[in-house]
# Entry
Amino acid sequence: MIRKSDFFYGLPAELIAQTPLADRAASRLMALERATGKIKHDRFINILSYFNRNDCLVINDTRVMPARFCGVKKNTGARIELLLLRRIDRNGWEALVRPGKRVKNGDVMIFGDGALTAGQEADLGDGVRFIRFAYEGVFEEILDSVGETPLPPYITEKLADGERYQTVYAANYGSAAAPTAGLHFTESILKEAAEKGIFVARVTLHVGLGTFRPVKNENIAEHIMHAEYYEVDAQQAEIIAAAKKAGGKIVCVGTTSCRTLETIADADGTYLAGGRGSTDIFIYPGYEFKLTDALITNFHLPESTLLMLVSAFAGRENVLRAYAEAVKERYRFFSFGDAMLII
# Structure
């Protein structure tokens, strides 16, 4: 049995980054060789020095929604907060409702002085509700006017510029949280990658809060991941296939890109055609990676599914030793923190 407690490490609270750096690429970078466990301390601005012509960076171009908004319950006026998780159909969403005890099936909530109304149709359990919206106009434009970008609960400071919780390549609207490994990239780094002959392929995985839900079971095999929507365009699939054929490394920028590729690759690592669907893949030690050759990621919460994925890729002992080194060297942790390259 693989235990949740096997992935615990101590972290001083002051190492949890509360705000992004002024320069995205100014973050520190820890490079970890998974074969040897060797660690190198570097800066993210030098990330491309680890890659060669025909390698392929796979980036997740999802865009974070202003998915948190406050309103009132119709008839009673009770204050309600809604956090969108996943779109089910055009106007139907899975969402968290707070305080949940105030809202029952059939209840209606009002947001933005009536610009948006929402009715609860089902309680899906574990705090998740099925909500259907009614509005006039364009839903995304209404969200922009009534909502705010949700930040992880460990970030307590107000974000001055909401775009700093978006990657520079964010395009496809739909995430409840940012694919944070990509926050370190700049337009100039991506331009330099192209000039160096490094492929860049885009995939989309709309990050849901299920990715960040705590593992409650000590036996991690009993943990159930919530499904997230992914999409890989056929043209982007061809870019990855071309890199693989040319002998290049497939470098996943973030655990979300990794989970997307590992979902759509077959058992021997042959890349499948582009497509779309939902994935609830849970990667933890013992998993055999099919397509991922290297991983760029941030430093993750203790006992989280993200730390388990990283441990599956680099080895739990290597990762925990690297995290201990990061704490010793005062790296910044979590969403706005420093980066790790596993190669």
Q: What stands out?
A: The first helix runs from residue 139 to 146.
